[in-house]
Specification:
InterPro entries: SsuA/THI5 (IPR015168)
CATH superfamily of the largest domain: Periplasmic binding protein-like II
CATH class of the largest domain: Alpha Beta
Subcellular location: Periplasm
Shape: elongated
Number of helices: 4
Radius of gyration: 18 Å
Largest sheet: 4 strands, mixed
Pfam families: NMT1
Number of strands: 4
Keywords: Signal
Structural class: alpha/beta
Helix content: 25-40%
GO cellular component, one term: periplasmic space
């Protein structure tokens, strides 16, 4: 919106945060008047924000959900016994279910590490996890 001059910078200030968790925190603290979130994030936010209003629904997705591994793998079944980070959200849960199904694994066969998307690069670089469920 800013790049395409869709907003008047004298009345609207656009802020880009690194994760939905940060957006929700800033909204709860009154630092934001409006937030762009997925439906599952809005539902979670509505549990603590009584005066929440949805005024626009979009149907836009880059379709870039993915599993990223620290090492080469030939198949998802090789994730068995590994530490996998994921954002605790509906999308993260859905992706996890798809990965488990495709790999014929159960949740108990992985060590799941809750994390926000902005943490994924750091925890991969620091070898805190073997793989992440993430997105672009």
């Amino acid at each position: 919106a800013k790049h395409e001059n869709y907003t008047d910078s004298s009345t609207v200030r656009l802020i880009q945060l690194s994760s939905a968790t940060e957006v929700m925190r800033a909204f709860r603290q009154g630092q934001l008047d409006v937030a762009a979130l997925t439906l599952d994030e809005v539902i979670r936010l509505a549990q603590t924000e009584a005066d929440l209003r949805i005024f626009l629904i979009t149907n836009i997705s880059n379709g870039a959900d993915k599993v990223i591994s620290r090492y080469p793998i030939d198949g998802l079944e090789q994730l068995e016994g590994k530490r996998m980070a994921l954002e605790i959200s509906a999308v993260g849960a859905m992706m996890l279910m798809e990965v488990l199904h495709a790999a014929d694994l159960t949740r108990d066969q992985l060590t799941l590490i809750p994390s926000t998307v902005d943490q994924h690069i750091g925890i991969m670089r620091q070898a805190e996890v073997d793989a992440v469920i993430s997105f672009d």
